């Protein structure tokens, strides 16, 4: 938690708090005397915190968007109507 940037600490605290609540239930029920569940949860928390600190993926351009290379749009039928020519 100390290595997490200040902007992400609230989110990290929620992740850790949720896993801690689950582990408290396992501990109260004596469900795992070896502690393997705790080790798995610790790895899961570390993975989530690492994922949280990764930069977001780069945005892709819109699919199907067309860019027109011509400047006068003479091929477009509406352009000829607006100029008064057919």
What is the strand and helix layout of this fold?
Layout: H1 9-28, H2 36-53, H3 77-83
Helix pairs in contact: 1-2
Can you walk me through this structure?
The chain has 86 residues and is an all-alpha fold. The chain has a domain at 1-57. It contains three helices and no strands. Helix 1 (9-28) runs antiparallel to helix 2. The longest helix has 20 residues, at 9-28. The radius of gyration is 28 Å and the shape is elongated. It starts with 8 loop residues before the first helix and ends with a helix. The mean pLDDT is 80.
- Continuous helix count: 3
Q: For this entry, what is the oligomeric state of its chains? A: single chain
End-to-end separation in angstroms reads 70 Å
Shape by Cα distribution: elongated
Radius of gyration, in Å, reads 28 Å
H/E element order: HHH
**Main beta-sheet annotation:** none
Report the structural category.
Answer: mainly alpha
Q: What portion of residues is helical?
A: 40-55%
Percentage beta strand: under 5%
In short:
With 86 residues, the protein is mostly helical. It contains 3 helices and no strands.
Attribute tags:
86 residues, mainly alpha
């Amino acid at each position: 938690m100390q290595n997490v940037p200040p902007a992400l600490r609230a989110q990290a605290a929620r992740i850790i708090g949720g896993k801690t609540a689950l582990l408290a239930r396992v501990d109260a029920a004596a469900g795992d005397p070896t502690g393997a569940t705790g080790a798995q949860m610790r790895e899961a928390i570390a993975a989530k915190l690492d994922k949280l600190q990764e930069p977001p993926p780069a945005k892709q351009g819109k699919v199907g968007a067309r860019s027109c290379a011509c400047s006068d749009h003479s091929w477009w039928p509406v352009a000829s109507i607006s100029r008064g020519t057919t």
